Amino acid sequence: MEKIKMTTPLVELDGDEMTRILWSDIKEILLKPYIELNTLYFDLGLPERERTRDQVTIDSAHAIEQYGVGVKCATITPNAQRVEEYKLSQMWKSPNGTIRAILDGTVFRAPIMVKGISPVVKNWKAPITIARHAYGDVYKCVEHRAEGPGKAELVFTAADGTETRHTIFDFAGPGVLQGQYNTDASITSFAHSCFRYAIASRQDLWFATKDTISKKYDHRFKDIFAEIFEKEYAEQFKKLGIEYFYTLIDDAVARVVRSQGGFIWACKNYDGDVMSDMVSTAFGSLAMMTSVLVSPSGKYEYEAAHGTVTRHYYQYLKGQETSTNPMATLFAWTGALRKRGELDAIPALIAFADNMEKASIATIEGGTMTKDLTSLWEGDVPARTVNSRAFLCAIRDEFEKFRNA
Ligand code: NAP
Ligand code: MG
To answer: By CB atoms within 10 Å of each CB, which of 85, 235, 332, 366 scores lowest?
Structure first.
């Protein structure tokens, strides 16, 4: 059989540790036998980030900007221990943070669902995708500990020097206070990313804040979403039969739990931090959580939600057998290849991505899985635990059946 040809390079960002091993195994076992892989390769492994003084990360983000689609392996975010371990000249910043700052994107996380591993919430039948606004609010706040009585004020000095003052509280005794902000520009980008992703994935979009209590701050989020939706997206939503739905955050929580899933839930920064952990835990395993960064201008970067699985990597280095789940990393590749196929009008590439995902799900549903899933397994057939490479080979066998069917 002839290999599938690609017309535009896919921007490939290699990474670290166990996921770097999975990365090369996925390419060797599942991609290269079927596709003439055309990638623009950037090595974001920590040694190369050190060698290039992190320029490689910046270059890779600009390449995604230029070509439109990237796929990223998990990478180490250095801390003091990593500076020691890798003899780093600096504690380089999180690559994801650097890339997100350049692409100005929103991260969408969705679980891969398989029969036999059921969500804790029994009525969830389809994935719930969380979109987290990863900018500002409490993550960039200024805090103050009032040691005793005093007056707390909010002062805004406009560019022309005009001052606006609000009393926050007259403290009779000690207490705490906090100042946080967001910008119209960032909220606008967030809204565009959400609406675009809803259209691209043909799913309803829910958004929730606490605008009844926060009448200026949260209300601004609500208004920006509503204005942008009406002006730019309402018609497309109608055409696709999907809906934009705004509600209060507490109402959203209740509705999400009672829902069947199958929609995108856009969250403010803090809500997204908390709710994404709740939703991913309830769906089962971090190793089955996919993630895509979507920029407001429609550039896509696909990755797994988990990290480099360091604990398994140290076992691997000692020559011990490891059973690390490659599903989310594989879905990063299939997601990126499908998007490339859509943008370049290559039906064979889209079909490849669809079939590879189906084959990997069928492999698990047939009882063959990595160790992390075994304890969650409730399927009819007994679970057969295999190592990562054997799992990828089982997926290839399943994929061959699909191809030959
Ligand atoms: P992690 O790599 O996500 O792993 C945490 C634990 O979750 C693992 O020890 C393992 O549990 C389980 N796990 C995660 N993915 C798995 C998979 N594919 N298959 C099987 N089990 C899996 O998080 P971490 O250990 O906190 O972080 C390790 C490194 O990754 C850090 O240097 C961090 O900076 C980096 N990181 C990168 C990204 C990113 O690039 N997007 C995200 C998060 C963290 P058991 O040990 O119980 O088997
Ligand atoms: Mg969190």
So the answer is: 235
| Ligand 1 contact via 372 beta carbon (within 6 Å) | yes
Ligand 1 centroid – CA 236 distance (Å): 38
Q: Decide whether any atom of ligand 1 lies within 6 Å of the 311 Cβ.
A: yes
pLDDT tens, position by position, 301-348: 999 999 999 999 999 999 998 999 999 999 999 999 999 999 999 999
* Closest-approaching ligand to the CA atom of 292: 1
User: 1-5, 135-139, 343-347 — which is least confidently predicted?
Assistant: 135-139
How high does pLDDT run on average in the chain?
95
Q: Look at ligand 1, atom 27, and give the residue with the nearest C-alpha.
A: 307
Cβ–ligand 1 distance for 74 under 6 Å, the answer yes
* Amino acid residing at 296: P
**pLDDT tens-digit readout, 217-262:** 999 999 999 999 999 999 999 999 999 999 999 999 999 999 999 9
